[in-house]
Amino acid sequence: MTESPQRNRPDSPGSVPDDGRQNQLTKRGGGAPATRGRTTIADGVVEKIAGMAARDVAGVHAMGSGISRTFGAVRDRVPGGGKSVSRGVKAEVGESQAALDLEIVVEYGVAIAEVARDVRENVIAAVERMTGLEVVEVNIAVSDVKLPDEDDDEDESESRVQ
Fold first, then answer.
1. pLDDT per residue as tens digits for the range 110-128
2. CA distance 76 to 55
3. For 56-74, what is each residue's pLDDT tens digit?
4. Which of these, 7, 81, 88, 129, is most buried using a 10 Å CB contact count?
């Protein structure tokens, strides 16, 4: 007796013949690709995202205390120093959550409570969207108010020599 080849007869309508490869892939891989490994996000990454998001809010003049802004202005003048977008931001990052502390300088005349609320909302949205972490708190300290007639420490980039 001859046996008919089973290769061309599917077990059920619409099914693909089982040649053993499908089972090997499932067993070998151990699940969906998204579950194969762990992603860690450094505190500095979250600090940069939060710093950029906070600076995007109207009414925020600068980030950081007077001392950190002074050191930052010096660092900006050093070749290769560049501006630090994470100035005034401290992040604590866990496996699935993050907590942030921000220090901001606001423009004179703005409603500080509204600026703080807008900063908080913008920072939470940016960090959660970009990292997938749950932001459990954003603490905001307003360290100064930029008055209209004050010289800006960060804008002293004019050269004395022309």
1. 999 999 999 999 999 999 9
2. 17
3. 999 999 999 765 445 545 5
4. 88
User: What's the sign of the alpha-carbon dihedral 127, 128, 131, 136?
Assistant: positive
Burial of 112 (0-12, 13-18, 19+ CB in 10 A): middle
Close Cβ partners of 61 (under 8 Å, ≥ 6 residues apart): 104, 105, 106, 107, 146
Q: Nearest CA to 138 among 59, 55, 47, 69? A: 47
pTM above 0.85, yes or no: no
Are 54 and 102 in contact by the 8 Å Cβ rule? The answer is yes
Please report where in the chains the tokens 């070998």 appear, as a residue: 28
Strand partners of residue 97: 134
